[in-house]
Structures are given as structure tokens and as C-alpha cells.
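Sharing a chain and its predicted structure for anyone who wants a worked example. Both blocks are below, sequence first, C-alpha cells second.
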Amino acid sequence: MQSQEKPTKFGIISSILAILLSVIWCVYIVILMIYTQREVTSINVTSALVSVVFFYGGLLVMAVLNFLMTITGMVLSVLSLRKGEPKRFFAIVGFVINFLWLLPYCIGCFTFFLPLDS
């Protein structure tokens, strides 16, 4: 007979943050594609400038939001895993997804500090 214990709250919140981050990135990319497609067909210079600012500004905001939400999700996952409760599925899923979101930052930092002459 299985135990009726509930998953930890930190694990559930970590998984929700990871899924929410995925949804936010998808919405940003869709909005960006719609907006830039509409602005590419017009000849107005001001709207093209707004499109470029929206692209780079939005990308900067998304990068900061991605980093903060990923670190928060990973900390919550580790806290949930450290409790040692038997229902750790959401904590493990949240940790894995958040790690996958953090991986490009790790690769970027690693390649940034590599010497150029090697």
C-alpha cells in the first residue's frame, strides 16, 4: 500500500517556476515574431527602431528574468531534496528543468573565459 504523503511545497513551486519560465519564453518569442513581421513589412524608420529596441530590450529582460527564476527554482529544489521526504518527484523534475535553463549561461561563462590561443 502506498503512503498518502503529499509532495513538498518547495518541489511543487520549483516545478511551477520551471514550467512558467518555459511558457514565458514561448510567449516572448511568439510576440517578437508577430511584432517584427508586422514591422518588417512597413517602411517607417521609427517603427523599425522600436522593433530593434523591443528585441534587444526584451532579450535583456528575459535573460535577467531567466537567470533569477532558474536560480530560485534550483534553490527550492535543493531545499526540497534536502528534507529527505519520500515524495521528491516534483523537486527532481524542477531541478532538471531549471538546470537545463541554466545550462546556456554555464556554457557561455565557460567559453568566455577560455584562452583564445588554445
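Comments welcome. The chain has a mean pLDDT of 84.
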